[in-house]
Design a protein that fits this description.
The chain is of the alpha+beta class. 58% of the residues lie in helices and 15% in strands. It is elongated, with a radius of gyration of 34 Å.
Length: 430
Amino acid sequence: MKLYHDYKRLYRFVVILFLGILVLIPIIFSNAQTADELNNKIDQKNADINKLEQEIAQYQSQINDLGKHKSSLNSSIQQLDLSRKKLNADISVTQSKIDKTNLKIQELSLNINNKKDIISNNIDAISINIKRINEIEQNDLVETVLSENDFTLIWNDIDNMSTLTDILRETTFKLKEAKSNLEDTRKETTDAKNELLTLKSKLNDQKKIVDQNTLEKKKLLSQTKNSEALYQKLLKDRLAKKEAFEKEVERYESQLKFILNPSLLPQKGILSWPLDNIYVTQLFGITKDSKRLYASGSHSGVDFRASIGTPVKSVADGIVAGVGDTDITCAYASFGKFIFIQHDNGLSTTYGHLSLIKVSKGQRVNRGDIIGYSGNTGHSTGPHLHLTVYAAEAAKMETRPSKACGGRSYTMPIAPTNAYLDPMYYLPSY
């Protein structure tokens, strides 16, 4: 009866395994409760984010309305105050997203631990079952059958052994499935952790921009002594300096010799948008606004509506050929904080009026990478992003002295006049 006793031991194991599963049920239920709690917290964070985003939209609408009015000290102060409120709301949204991502990572970690337990239990079960089956199969079945009187009992046990083999096969399949799910969950966790790092970096950037906004307001109040007359004089002086500086740069660029080779330029629509939300406020070339705002009568790029602190992205792969701040040597006359990128596709781009620069000269960037944040630096009648596109072989960083800026040297991208290209031709359809 050795074979029969082996079967009995095997079934005792199955019973014990079943009882073990019953013991695990409260643990699984407890984990389910924890998962429900995490999901409830995640739902609350989503509600907080939606509420804050509605608040941000209201601030943005008010900022846009202010931009339609004639510039005054009061409107400038209001714009700075609204920008600060919006930035603080942006910070709250980012912090809520960080909290939500942390909760998501906790949930994923819980799922990983559960899947690891399932895999471990399945491996143990498979290992013991295989061992028991091997022990049984090593007996001489014919000899055991001939030595027994109750053939019905033995054949029933053999039939049950076949059933057990099917169970083993199903358990193996579930093990593979659990392993695949574990790998997927681990990838989700890695992605969530990477997103968390990005959000934390963004939060730090937003706090820096809020500090800049506060300093800008203090500086404006100090310069104007809260007087509208002094503010209008300040605007007039800035405009005169800006026009003189532009004429200086235009005169130099018009003297540069460059033969544009169209065959070296890429196809239409090859660039991506530099912002997530696109609203064009001024086109390239001679426009109604360009005649009024620019000494040359022509706008050298495209302007996009972008509140202070909006992430700015590279429109294509390339190398950062230069970064800088023209306000350091010639305040309110040109790009302000800018980034200049030479792309792999035959084009170069400049991103102007930024509040914060996130890249450095020589750094390689990919299409869609956040390279900085929009702002209101340089000559700007309101927060926006200016994008210039050039033929790459013609544009380069140059340092030149400027009479308009008191003889101080400025450093910025320079290109022959005919190397400036219409960004809208290379951007997606608008």
